[in-house]
Amino acid sequence: MQDAVIFDPTTVDDDTRQQRDEVSEASSPLAALDAKQRREFNKLQKRLRRQVGNAIIDYGMIHEGDRVMVCLSGGKDSYTLLEILRNLQRNAPVNFSLVAVNLDQKQPGFPEHVLPEYLEGLGVEYYILERDTYSVVKEKTPEGKTTCALCSRLRRGSLYGFAEEIGATKVALGHHREDILETLFLNMFYGGSLKAMPPKLLSDDGKNIVIRPLAYCREADIAEFARLMEFPIIPCNLCGSQPNLQRQVVKEMLAEWERKHPGRLETMFKAVTNVAPSQLADRELFDFAGLEAKQARMQERRIDALNVSNDG
Ligand code: SF4
Fold this sequence. Notes:
By secondary structure, this protein is α/β, with parallel strands linked by helices. It has 2 domains: 4-244, HUPs (Rossmann fold); 276-312. The protein is 51% helix and 10% strand. It has 11 helices and 7 strands. It has helices at residues 14-26, 35-58, 76-91, 114-122, 133-140, 148-165, 177-191, 219-229, 245-260, 264-272, 291-311, and strands at residues 4-7, 67-71, 97-104, 126-130, 170-172, 200-202, 209-211. Helix 3 (76-91) links the parallel strand 2 (67-71) and strand 3 (97-104). It binds iron/sulfur cluster (SF4). Iron/sulfur cluster (SF4) binds next to helix 6. Iron/sulfur cluster binds next to helix 6.
């Protein structure tokens, strides 16, 4: 196995678990909310759980006996994903296990204690995988270029490989609705292709199935949930990288559309799930060359039907 620190909750005795649950309830940030705030929080939490549950059902993301590896970066999205999946795990009709994995990329200033403390507090099985992708990214990226693309590729490679090692049958990522829409427009504007981020995906080498249970969730809901839950957020830009400017531009464009036309993002997301290949222009997806043959078949059927009704 690669270098990794592991915590296995099954080795924690019952007394310790009970003490920890009592402490965590009393010290929960939610204890400070008044009745109205609590109601709002419950509504938000219910919505996120429902959307995650629906996405899991719609795309057949999790099956009986799955071992789901939740990739935990320390950002709001992955904390939310873990929290919602933990809840679903308790209530779902299928049995599945969760294991959280954080990739410590050796960025300067990365607070190594934050995630182990958090995860041990929850009693979730976890691994911290140590990989110095930071140095590789710094070395390989030309001065002034953004480092995020290579960094993400290396991160993905490390995590997918590790999933196989620990026998994870699914790799869960914290991408949400806005991530999917941003990717759609980025691919359209800069990549010349009509593709986004699928809720469920088989990796190119066929070894991993990647799932995105937050696919139906709004980023604003996740941000609010993370704020109220007071997750110990670790910023991604410890590496000193500039944010990905193209993504930022698309993000602002989408936010502006939503401000001017509330509901537009929801409609656009619906469009991603409702594709009509015959109304696009991809010859791989639709047999334009075969339309004449199809027309002839349809006309033949019509004549046959006409003959039958005249005979009758
Ligand atoms: S901000 Fe830094 S750590 Fe985050 S994806 Fe970009 S290069 Fe990687």
